[in-house]
Amino acid sequence: MRIFLFSSLMFLLMGCTTVAQYAEEPVVVDMATDVPATILPEPTVMPTAEPMVELTAVPPTEIPPTAEPTAEPTAEPTAVPEPTAVTFELVDETAVLTIPLTEPLGKLTSEVSGMAWYGEWLIIMPQYPLFSRQGEDGVLYALHKDEIEAFINGESDAPLDAQPIPFHSSTLRHKIAGFEGYESIAFDGDTVYMTVEANQNGMHGYLVRGTIEPDLSGITIYAEEEIAYIPPQTSITNFSDESVLLVGDQLLTMYESNGLQYNPNPVAHVFGADLAEQGTIPFPRIEFRVTDATELDKNGRFWVINYNYPGDDKVQTDDDPLAAAYGKGATHAASKGVERLVELQYSPDGINLTDTPPVQLQMLPTNNNYRNWEGIVRFNDGWLIITDRYPGTIFGYVSGTGK
Questions:
Q1: What are the sequence ranges of the domains in the chain?
Q2: Alpha-carbon distance 201 to 34, whole Å?
Q3: Between β-strands 139-144 and 121-126, what pairing exists: parallel, antiparallel or unpaired?
Q4: CA-CA distances (angstroms) from residue 136 to 139, 168, 217, 227?
Q5: SS3 357
Q6: pLDDT of 62-87, one tens digit each?
Q7: Cβ atoms of residues 296 and 247 within 8 Å
Q8: What CATH number was assigned to the domain covering residues 97-398?
Q9: Average pLDDT, integer, range 251-270
Q10: What is the pLDDT of residues 238-257, one digit of tens each?
Q11: Average of pLDDT values for 20-33?
Q12: Residues 6+ apart with CB under 8 A from 136
């Protein structure tokens, strides 16, 4: 009997050995990644997703002896509240007046990604200027302000016929590995600035510079030396700096994704007029995508396009502070899509949202027929905007009366 009790006691003591004595040390992960600082002839490595840390075993804990449990009194069942849907105040939306364009610019394949004013000429930039197979490096297009105004005022209903501008980019599309076209454009006198997107095992951006001939006989990009690298802010596929803003003798480029979950500390990159890198300034949280910007006004304010296609799972969220603060229009309340214009304020210390309510565009009634607006400029009291190829090339005017 004594032997039995002694053996049992030894068995219990041995059973108290914890799993922690045999657990491996936690894996330490070095998250530093390299971003290329120069243009390389071969694709460079983008930051990859963070490796998963191997979980270690959790040791069991001893439970101290407690008094014999007593039966708890039976409680009356409580009603479980029904989940409530998030509701928004309904606000006004603004319709887009469609302005027809002749081909080839009006074709689906033109895939416009930016616009800017050069004097009284609106310069329209396809992502791939060679799409129309015109010239060695393709063409950009120009529309005069008077033509646009005549259509908006009802003086003409004919499609606008944009003038082609020969584009000369030398070896740029071959010099930048993984070249995927042009994303934004701005003018400072006869100097033109454009941002470029490249897929080098991940997305990267570049800022390039050139000149435009005053008679619109050509636009030339200095591909051999006038190139600045723009580091990415996330590893999201197909996202780069899609907006460029002229601020005095500086240029600011703005990234496409600036939402809390995907890019919690967004910035705008600052460059000199000579493309010398000058650091960054803070950029505000704006969910979904930011695809283009207008020029500054005299008070340092400008507008950006804020767009969301619900099928794009890279930027989806139910937390939209702008909608929570200002409400939703009828078509926005009935959809997860977003088509709106948002006003921002520039200062040397950073870019901030103003207290001006966003301009929500009245969306098309057909499901999944969202318009991917990619270009915007100011026009009189409102804005001119243009889509890329989804759902087609749509050029339109948005009135800003009362905004």
A1: 97-398
A2: 13
A3: antiparallel
A4: 9, 8, 14, 21
A5: coil
A6: 333 334 444 444 444 444 344 344 56
A7: yes
A8: 2.115.10
A9: 97
A10: 999 999 999 999 999 999 99
A11: 36
A12: 168
